[in-house]
Amino acid sequence: MRATIIHGPKDIRLETTADPALQAATDAIVRITAACICGSDLWHYRGLSKGQVFPRTIGHECLGEIVEIGTDVEDFAIGDRVVVPFNHCCGRCTNCLAGVQSACLQRSLTTSGQAEYARVGHADASLMRIETDDHDRIPSLLALSDVMATGWHAAVCAGVTAGMTVVVVGDGAVGLCGVLAAQQLGAERIIAMSRHEDRQRIATAFGATDLVAERGADGESRVKDLTDGIGADAVLECVGTGESLATAYAIARPGSTVGFVGVPHGVENVPMFVGFAKNLGLRGGSAPVRKYLPTLLPLVESGAITPGLVFDLDLSLDAVAEGYLAMDTRRATKVLLRP
Amino acid sequence: MRATIIHGPKDIRLETTADPALQAATDAIVRITAACICGSDLWHYRGLSKGQVFPRTIGHECLGEIVEIGTDVEDFAIGDRVVVPFNHCCGRCTNCLAGVQSACLQRSLTTSGQAEYARVGHADASLMRIETDDHDRIPSLLALSDVMATGWHAAVCAGVTAGMTVVVVGDGAVGLCGVLAAQQLGAERIIAMSRHEDRQRIATAFGATDLVAERGADGESRVKDLTDGIGADAVLECVGTGESLATAYAIARPGSTVGFVGVPHGVENVPMFVGFAKNLGLRGGSAPVRKYLPTLLPLVESGAITPGLVFDLDLSLDAVAEGYLAMDTRRATKVLLRP
User: Looking at the partner chain, which of A271, A279, A288 has a beta carbon nearest the beta carbon of B102?
Assistant: First the structure.
């Protein structure tokens, strides 16, 4: 198959490699019809992740059509169109039953998501069938494989409930989806910390009621002004740097929770003393995507939410290297790829 | 009055100083009948807290009898015997109403707790009247001013509920009270990480079902063995060092929460990547003592709980310097002082 291979920092190539094969009776093989590039792929692209093995296939967000199933797959058939969560789960272990499917004891990951085919482990428990035929829904359905579920997870971790004032730190695709999640969970006021005009427009479309373009102390001061000096009821930290975490802690009201979903890269410095004085909570991690899909898929299929708006560049898979470059240089927020 | 004065590291003296006076119409002055030394006092004693001003009075845990009230105090009268929460709160601000009385916008602290008298701000909202005349209850009532409420807060922050398997990291007075809190909140199994025999006995009396004496990797491995390799449903981190926090993260099951209540002293290094992979929560801070007293005071007055067991040295206030030395050298877990 044609697949995106990362050979090293800044070295992305579309090459021909072996098709993925069933490895277990619970696996399925999906022919990918839409894929995308994740902010976390850029860590590898930029050479900022330790212990990387090159060359290897890359990409973990996709949807497509099932072309092969293992003998133990019961709930799906060849030809089914499916959303593929980036993390696959068994649905039966103690962690899955506890709602932490992302820590499934038999977890596997989509490892050739920017390609023609991908293998999915524990297909029955991992996949979700797509019912709609509406082609316009494809970007939003694709967003469910990771970015929208991840933004949702940030809001759930932060404890967003109806009537709250919520701040979203970061206006990447995850942050924008966090705004949409907060809106769906009933937040009354959503302050998006965003300084890019195009992203501010999406944030507003997703339900942001206030925009704060400043960062650091100025941004914190602006948010404090907007929240009676007390801070927000919930904060979604969707950047993943020490600076953004410090901002999140500074603007969270006493007793509230900071939800975080960015893969930490050397960001171990948490402002513990601020958290202690304000009794803050910090909760987050890798999103249990499959847990949220029964809620999110109908919202996308009905058109109630359109997280696909985060895609601002639509390329053929052949142009994947151009897609990485566009995201690396911030010319694009998120790139959709069509094999 | 006679009061404990800290002149610098390791320099504790009982001296004569001015009596505290009413500063606001909502204040009360309490004649202290029982006081104690807190683990957090040792940070100052050991010279490990930055920005200390010497000399000054020290001590924040006490109970006693009201001897003077401001003109706006309505719910208490001279002669009332009261538990004095170490943090005083107005009960009306947005943080108090949100249940974070420890971040009260008008918060004050007991600053001469190891003395004959202490001033209490916002007496109506801060104090709790003692009804029992039973002298044997004094140590347990005294424990409500901080240590028992703090152990309770650790358990609440960690989300302890009925049937859970809970681990308490640390066997200081707060950790021991954390065991008792977990037991009262219905934990089915309570693993106390404790290596001192005398403290193990108290932990067992407070409801610990298992004792793990090992620390570090060995201790983590023992807890994993006791929890089916998955980890605990809730972890109370009652030490406050980077090592103990790392242990807490290692033994917490995916999706669970680590409650912490120790004043962080340079411990800003949180194992974020472990937390991310396991979707852990981290929550804690300064205990909102007054919030818990309506629950805890009746438990002490009825004899249902006896947190006073954490006191293993009972001294006259005159011997306060000896008390600090005993705690500093770990000859005592917690020292009760009688003015």
Answer: A279
Beta bridge partners of B281: A283, B257
* Distance from the A316 Cα atom to the nearest Cα atom in chain B, whole angstroms: 33
Task: Determine whether the interchain pair B286/A275 forms a contact, defined as Cβ–Cβ distance below 8 Å.
Answer: no
Residue of chain A with shortest Cα separation from B95: A254
Residues in contact with A70: Cβ distance below 8 Å, sequence separation at least 6, in sequence order: A22, A24, A25, A26, A27, A28, A123
How many residues are given for chain B? Answer: 339
Q: CA-CA distances (angstroms) from residue A60 to A68, B42, B233, B321? A: 19, 51, 31, 63
Per DSSP, A264 falls in state P
pLDDT tens digits for range A42-93: 999 999 878 889 999 999 999 999 999 999 999 999 999 999 999 999 999 9
Pick from B40, B89, B157, B272 the residue to mutate for testing the A interface (most A CBs within 10 Å).
B272
Q: List the beta strands (DSSP E) in chain B.
A: 2-8, 11-16, 28-36, 56-57, 61-69, 81-84, 87-88, 108-109, 117-120, 128-129, 165-169, 189-193, 210-212, 232-237, 252-260, 281-284, 313-316, 335-338
With CA atoms as reference, report the closest residue to A172 among A146, A151, A149. Answer: A151
User: In the CATH hierarchy, which fold is given to the domain comprising B2-146+288-338?
Assistant: Quinone Oxidoreductase; Chain A, domain 1 (3.90.180)
In the three-class reduction of DSSP (H, G, I as helix; E, B as strand; rest coil), residue B109 is classed as strand
A199 touches A171 (CB < 8 A): yes
Least CB–CB distance from B275: residue in A273, A279, A285? A285
- Of B144, B115, B151, B137, nearest to B35 by C-alpha is B115
Q: Please state which architecture CATH assigns to domain A150-284.
A: 3-Layer(aba) Sandwich (3.40)
For residue B263, what pLDDT is reported? 75
The CATH 3.40.50.720 portion of chain A extends over 150-284
Q: Does domain B151-284 have CATH number 2.40.10.120?
A: no
Q: In degrees rounded to 5, what are phi and psi of residue B72?
A: -95, 0
Choose among B95, B268, B272: nearest Cβ to A272. Answer: B268
Query: B297 pLDDT band (50/70/90 cuts)?
Result: very high
C-alpha–C-alpha distance, residues B212 and B248, integer Å: 13
In this prediction, residue B49 carries a pLDDT of 79
**Could you tell me what percent of chain B has a pLDDT over 90?**
93
| DSSP sequence for A66-90 | EEEE-TT--S--TT-EEEE-SEE--
Instruction: Provide CATH 3.90.180.10 ranges for chain B.
Output: 2-146+288-338
User: Chain B: nearest CA to A133, how far in angstroms?
Assistant: 35
